[in-house]
Design a protein that fits this description.
By secondary structure, the protein is an alpha/beta fold. The protein has helices at 14-17, 25-36, 55-66, 79-93, 107-119, 135-142, 162-168, 191-201, 261-274, 280-291, 295-316, 352-363, 387-400; strands spanning 42-43, 102-105, 125-130, 146-151, 173-179, 207-211, 237-242, 255-258, 331-332, 343-344, 347-348, 365-366, 368-369, 379-382. The structure holds pyridoxal-5'-phosphate. Pyridoxal-5'-phosphate binds next to helix 5.
Length: 402
């Protein structure tokens, strides 16, 4: 007699079971439900600019449709876009890549997933400094490797030190992930800091995946410095970037990856058997974004900087909150250790998820708990919102912890 059973989760692979579901889902589901009920929620949970996609970029997309540019393209992206990306690297990052050292994918996310799938397998370790962007450890696990989390501190502005890196390296280390400017902390490694970290890796046969998604959103005097600028490391560095954040194009899904040709070819192969080329229309729009007037990027950067200054001062003046000064991206990541273990409005704050839930339920401010970023004593607030909305949120948070 055959043994039949009702199919269910027992059929799922170890690969998918070892991944964690996004821990931010519960809080965003609650925020959406409350909004639908007509509650006045101030949402600081967004991972995207509040500005619209620039009009000339939209027009390029419309023109692509009108002219029938609506078919498959080269799997790794159109040459016109790769040339625009080459020029962007030259202009903004001081980097030279050949066209065959570049691939265009469906967002920065796919470039990173392709990279980890190309380089990682069982037994490999990938060093991921925490706080980290939520997807890094999960992508590494999906590729079969083990993330090795290195905890950084507020005192060091959430940046990994060379000594910490050295201590995390084992014979199994395959990759170091660097994300500067960082989501969620806004930390930016200076040129000297990047050089010091790369010195540790020199001659060690360890790759660097450098996620530079927020490279054009930086404040004050700091300029992001790509580890790919260091000649000794050049063959070991893979740079991921995209148009999502710089040009407010999150929905268009265009990211790009630059690195050694053999790795780009591997990513091309994976992409050819999974998703094929990124959206043709969006590729044309990305050309317009990268080659058009860059004035709007600077304008928006300045606006983000004003909001950063406001949020830094305002959050640090709330008892129990302590934050580093973000130097890039559009997030601020206060430590809320000072309110943990205390009770507000009858609710005990055990961890950041409790704090985020309390802020949302009782004070109508949506934030993202730090757990998801490997930092259970922090909250992520996005300042991709108007100053008026930020002021309203800060007043509500202050009241919540009075
Ligand atoms: N890398 C970082 C650090 C991000 O914050 C994000 C988006 O949130 C991405 C990559 C992915 O960007 P995309 O929307 O282009 O896939």
């Amino acid at each position: 007699m055959s043994n039949t059973s009702i199919p269910g989760e027992q059929y799922l692979t170890r690969r998918v079971l070892s991944m964690q579901e996004s821990q931010t889902m519960r809080i965003s589901a609650l925020a959406n439900k409350m909004k639908a009920e007509g509650k006045d929620i101030v949402s600081l949970s967004a991972g995207e600019p509040d500005f619209p996609t620039p009009d000339h970029v939209n027009q390029a997309g419309i023109e692509a449709i009108r002219s029938g540019f609506t078919r498959y393209t080269a799997n790794s992206g159109i040459s016109e876009l790769k040339k625009a990306i080459q020029e962007k690297f030259r202009r903004d990052n001081g980097l030279e890549f050949q066209e065959n050292e570049i691939i265009v994918s469906n967002g920065g996310k796919q470039t990173l997933a392709n990279t980890f799938l190309s380089l990682c397998q069982e037994g490999d370790e990938v060093i991921v400094p925490a706080p980290f962007w939520v997807s890094f450890p999960e992508m590494v696990r999906l590729a079969g490797a083990d993330p090795v989390i290195v905890n950084t501190t507020l005192e060091n502005d959430y940046k990994m030190t060379p000594a910490q890196l050295e201590a995390a390296i084992t014979p199994k280390t395959k990759i170091l992930v660097l994300n500067s400017p960082s989501n969620p902390t806004g930390a930016v490694y200076s040129e000297a800091e990047v050089r010091a970290l790369m010195k540790v890796l020199e001659g060690r046969n360890i790759f660097v995946v450098s996620d530079e998604m927020y490279d054009m959103i930086v404040y004050g005097d700091i300029r992001p410095f790509s580890p790919a600028r260091i000649p000794e490391m050049r063959e070991w560095v893979i740079v991921s970037n995209g148009v999502s954040k710089t040009y407010a194009m999150t929905g268009w899904r265009i990211g790009y990856l630059a690195g050694p040709k053999w790795l780009i070819d591997a990513c091309d192969k994976i992409q050819s058997q999974t998703t094929s080329n990124p959206n043709a229309i969006a590729q044309k729009a990305a050309v317009a974004a990268l080659t058009g007037d860059q004035g709007i990027v600077e304008e928006r950067r300045r606006e983000f900087e004003k909001r950063r200054d406001y949020m830094f001062a305002a959050l640090n003046s709330i008892p129990g909150f302590r934050t580093s000064m973000p130097q890039g991206a559009f997030y601020i990541f206060p430590s809320i250790a000072g309110v943990l273990g205390k009770t507000f409005n009858g609710m005990l704050m055990k961890d950041s998820a409790d704090v985020a839930e309390y802020l949302l339920r009782d004070h109508h401010v949506a934030t993202v708990p730090g757990d998801a970023f490997g930092a259970p004593e922090n909250l992520r607030l996005s300042y991709a919102a108007s100053i008026t909305a930020l002021e309203k949120a800060v007043n509500r948070i202050r009241k919540a912890f009075q």
